[in-house]
Design brief:
The protein is built from 6 helices and 5 strands; from the N terminus they run αββαααβαββα. It is an alpha+beta fold. The protein folds into 2 domains: 84 residues, Potassium Channel Kv1.1, Chain A, CATH 3.30.710; 79 residues, Alpha-Beta Plaits (2-Layer Sandwich), CATH 3.30.70. A hairpin with a 5-residue loop joins strand 1 and strand 2. The protein starts with 6 loop residues before the first helix and ends with a helix. The radius of gyration is 30 Å and the shape is elongated. The strands form 2 sheets. A 3-stranded antiparallel β-sheet has the order 3-5-4. One of its GO terms (biological process) is monoatomic ion transmembrane transport. It holds the Pfam family BTB_2. This is K+ channel tetramerization domain protein. One of its GO terms (molecular function) is cullin family protein binding.
């Protein structure tokens, strides 16, 4: 991809106004970070922003500005803003976990009745000795459920059916 006016384009055109140093083989010496040059090179090759894991977008932005690649600057800025929006969005919610104990006969009903945004994370059998297991004593399970709740600093959530039922029971 050719970007007229960019540092590398002008360098290849032997722009005399562009101060550059060459080594004994004629290779241009550019004192920049090679790790951050990789996304610039990938952009020029493919026309897409490809950033290796562990590289900061801000470093790629600096390189895009240095090499005078306005379209790449725009793409990196979009990526930075999207990352900030995602972080802000994630901070507005918190994961609330519950552990519910139920008998084997209740397990199917519990799983099918799980709603209000609760998701089952794991179902674990409570360990009992086999010889203690009789018809009178059914296997028990721990059901771990999770729900994303708005992080408004409040502990109670009015959308939670269990909380609503408890409130109704207190008022009756």
């Amino acid at each position: 991809m050719k970007v007229p006016g960019s540092f590398l384009y002008r360098l290849c055109q032997d722009d005399k106004r562009l101060p550059s140093i060459k080594d004994e083989t004629g290779a241009y010496l550019i004192d920049r970070d090679a790790d951050y040059f990789s996304p610039v090179l990938n952009y020029l090759r493919h026309g897409r922003l490809i950033i290796n894991p562990g590289l900061a977008e801000e470093g790629v932005l600096e390189e895009a500005e240095f090499y005078n690649l306005p379209q790449l600057v725009h793409l990196v800025n979009e990526r930075i803003h999207e990352k900030e929006r995602s972080a802000t969005e994630a901070a507005r919610f918190k994961s609330v976990y519950r552990v519910i104990q139920c008998h084997e006969e209740e397990l199917t009903t519990f799983i099918s009745a799980t709603s209000d945004g609760w998701k089952i994370v794991q179902v674990l059998p409570v360990q009992t000795k086999y010889q203690d297991y009789t018809v009178d004593r059914q296997q028990e399970y721990l059901c771990i459920v999770v729900r994303e709740c708005p992080d408004n600093g409040s502990v109670s959530d009015s959308r939670d059916r269990a909380t609503l039922l408890q409130q109704k029971a207190r008022h009756n």
